[in-house]
Amino acid sequence: VQLQASGGGLVQAGGSLRLSCAASGSISSISVMGWYGQAPGKQRELVATITLRGRTVYADSVKGRFTISRDSAKTTVYLQMSSLKPEDTAVYYCNAQGVWTTARDYHDSPYWGKGTLVTVSS
User: Fold this and answer.
1) Residue 115: which of 43, 19, 16 has the closest Cα?
2) Buried b (16+ CB within 10 A) or exposed e, 19-41
3) Quick one: CA torsion of 28, 32, 38, 39, rounded to 10 degrees?
4) Where does the pLDDT of residue 121 fall: very low under 50, low under 70, confident under 90, or very high at 90 and above?
5) Residues 61-86: pLDDT tens digits?
6) Rounded CA gap, 23 and 76, in Å?
7) Residue 72: its pLDDT value, please?
8) Average pLDDT value for the chain
9) What are the DSSP calls for 33-88, one per residue?
């Protein structure tokens, strides 16, 4: 299973960006997909996750500003980022957890994509 993220870039404070992450490979279903952010000098932290049934979890710092969603095939996850702040600057990593590669093969270990850099200027 591979995760390919895209959509990062440089944006001014108050602006918007949309991140995308497509999962590929042998996939039957993915229980949870999400985004984690790692700011310079800090640990990687949860930004938002979404389950197969659409249940979402957000970090308090992004509630009301970011929206996570999945496509109809449930293998691509998006993060719509609005009202961006300089403190949102981070490398954003896509994550997939609870992956069924076939109807019988379940993988508990998370998969990570390469990060995409989001820089918000003041």
Assistant:
1) 19
2) bebbbeeebeebebbbbbbeeee
3) 130
4) very high
5) 999 999 999 998 889 999 999 999 99
6) 6
7) 85
8) 96
9) EEEEEE-TTS--EEEEEEETT--EEE-GGGTTTEEEEE-TTSSEEEEEE-S--GGG
